[in-house]
Automatic annotation (TrEMBL), chains A, B:
<dbReference type="InterPro" id="IPR000835">
    <property type="entry name" value="HTH_MarR-typ"/>
</dbReference>
<dbReference type="InterPro" id="IPR036390">
    <property type="entry name" value="WH_DNA-bd_sf"/>
</dbReference>
<feature type="domain" description="HTH marR-type">
    <location>
        <begin position="22"/>
        <end position="154"/>
    </location>
</feature>
<dbReference type="Pfam" id="PF01047">
    <property type="entry name" value="MarR"/>
</dbReference>
<protein>
    <submittedName>
        <fullName>MarR family transcriptional regulator</fullName>
    </submittedName>
</protein>
<dbReference type="InterPro" id="IPR039422">
    <property type="entry name" value="MarR/SlyA-like"/>
</dbReference>
<dbReference type="InterPro" id="IPR036388">
    <property type="entry name" value="WH-like_DNA-bd_sf"/>
</dbReference>
Length: 157, 157
DNA sequence: ACAATTTAGTTATTGACTATAACTATTATC
DNA sequence: GATAATAGTTATAGTCAATAACTAAATTGT
């Protein structure tokens, strides 16, 4: 009678050789991201948010009166791609958009009370979802990871 | 006379507030990845490789005779999307595709000498490109990062 | 002060990538 | 030997990021 379960294997396939990819930071980053991102996506979808709209809502909440190009800059995205997202957040009553009197090209973005509440609730859910994945990382490893990632990001600018 | 330069600011914009996003691992992973990926893309493009075709070539080089579904599995992609990539690698003479006699549904993939050489050269270039970005990370931090990312990935399976 | 340039927001479009479904040929299962 | 499952393929649809072109408004240069 064969062992009914857990004869190694079966977690991640029959171990493919890899002498190169696994040592590349880009590859490791992408793989780790691909595990986490779908979970964030899933919990945000419960509130009809995409990752990008949640990010926008979050930055707007933290920066009352920010204008679209600053927001695009902060999130490293094209301002043209921002428009529809802002449109939707506004239509859902999560943010307001009003012309800046001193520069009428610009729109000051502000999160509504509903928007702020949704942001806080959604943020909590994303954090929980992440915590489940990183469960076995202790606080030191987590902090170290975040610091190193931040430095990676900064090194290019 | 005002200081002519470097009154802080100017690196990454006028510091936008952020009480949430920056503490999320998914966000940090994505940002770090977005710094590194374009560099890899750039150096690989010099050899007419995309990141995904380089990844395929690399795994095939390390696993002579691997079949397409195993490769798709290893790279966590759909086997349908693999076809055109394999087609191109084959047409460029970087790999060969031949029916396995014992199971004629399958194709055994093998890197040619040219393919292996290109893989090695490209890998070296990607590594160098990454090294420039992570320059200021010492070896301990780098090793720690890789280990933690690996664990993140494994925690979900 | 006014012409030329730049900036903010917008619209439309494109290319790249991912996921899905449907199909054929072959193998495995009952 | 019929039925189901698997490998590879094709076609297609949805998502996303990048680009160009445009309008309105502000800034700059002379």
């Amino acid at each position: 009678m064969p062992q009914t379960d857990d004869l190694s294997e079966d977690r991640g396939g029959p171990t493919v050789e890899d002498t190169v990819l696994g040592d590349l930071i880009g590859y490791r980053l992408k793989r780790a991201y691909m595990q986490i991102q779908p979970q964030a996506q899933r919990v945000l979808a419960e509130d009809d948010l995409r990752v990008v709209s949640f990010s926008c809502l979050s930055i707007i909440t933290d920066n009352t009166g920010i204008v679209q190009s600053e927001l695009a800059d902060a999130l490293q995205m094209e301002r043209s791609n921002l428009v529809v997202i802002i449109d939707e957040l506004e239509q859902r009553g999560l943010i307001t958009r009003k012309k800046v009197p001193t520069d009428r090209r610009r729109y000051a973005l502000t999160a509504t009370l509903r928007g702020r509440r949704l942001r806080d609730r959604a943020a909590e859910k994303v954090r929980s979802a992440e915590d489940e994945i990183i469960g076995r990382l202790d606080e030191r490893d987590r902090a170290h990871l975040m610091a190193v990632l931040q430095r990676l990001e900064d090194n290019t600018r």
